[in-house]
Amino acid sequence: GDVAVLVPAAGAGVRLGPGGPKALRLLGGEPLLVHAVRRLAAAPSVHTIVVAAPAAEVTAVRDLLAPVAPVTVVPGGAERQASVAAALAAVPAGPEIVLVHDAARALTPSDLVESVAAAVRAGRDAVIPVLPVVDTIKEVGVDEVVLGTVDRSALRAVQTPQGFRRAVLTAAHAAAGDPLTDDAGLVEKQGVPVSCVPGSEYALKITRPFDLALAEHLLVTGG
Ligand code: CTP
Ligand code: MG
Fold first, then answer.
1. How far apart are CA 121 and CA 162, in angstroms?
2. Residues enclosing ligand 1, CB less than 6 A?
3. 182: closest CA among 206, 151, 198, 158?
4. Domain architecture of the chain: domains with CATH
5. ipTM value for the complex
6. Which residues bear the site annotation Positions MEP for the nucleophilic attack (predicted)?
7. Per residue in 176-210, pLDDT tens?
8. Measured between alpha carbons, how far is 218 from 223 in angstroms, rounded to an integer?
9. Ligand 1 center to residue 10 CA distance, Å?
10. Does the predicted TM-score (pTM) go above 0.95?
């Protein structure tokens, strides 16, 4: 494997409701983070995994993941971007392809990890998995009054893992300003082209209670 994967897992999971850090919430009896790391480790390209855990849970997360895969665990930061930066700083010399993958996308297939890594290996600087947007999208103003309808055909919903040539991601984080919700956004600001590959519905981000219920169903039926 020539790929390092950074796993931001330090979020609180506010939108999922009460119950502790989201990455440690259970899905089919195992923490979301365990599902995510197991699927990453099963991807043949993956050589190194660095997890950014909630600062209070670093030792617990190390113990939790030790039987799953060899991983490095570092304390995350207050924003996702800071957690990714902390994990990036812990990648040893060697891997020249770096993927960033949300622990919250616990059921992401190993095949998607491989396809993102393969696109970077084939020469892309930055690669994101995307799905078409299925809903009609409106822009709204004050008091939820519609300003207009957006051309859906030009929109994509973006998932992780996002893949980067290592130097590209390092430079983008070094230049980063206000926190963004994904790493490709930082790379775009550097003027680097970002390429899309087809995403997977199984890579849904478990955000709200409905998503966790859906993931439980997908796990039982083959996720
Ligand atoms: N994340 C992180 N460090 C943070 C915030 C988020 O590592 N300070 C991680 C989360 O653990 C998650 C991923 O970034 O794996 C995507 O974030 P999100 O789905 O928003 O998770 P949370 O921030 O935990 O959820 P919420 O926004 O509902 O609190
Ligand atoms: Mg969040």
1. 13
2. 8-15, 22-23, 52, 76-80, 83, 102-104, 205, 207
3. 158
4. 3-126+157-221 (3.90.550.10)
5. 0.99
6. 152, 205
7. 999 999 999 999 999 999 999 999 999 999 999 99
8. 5
9. 6
10. yes
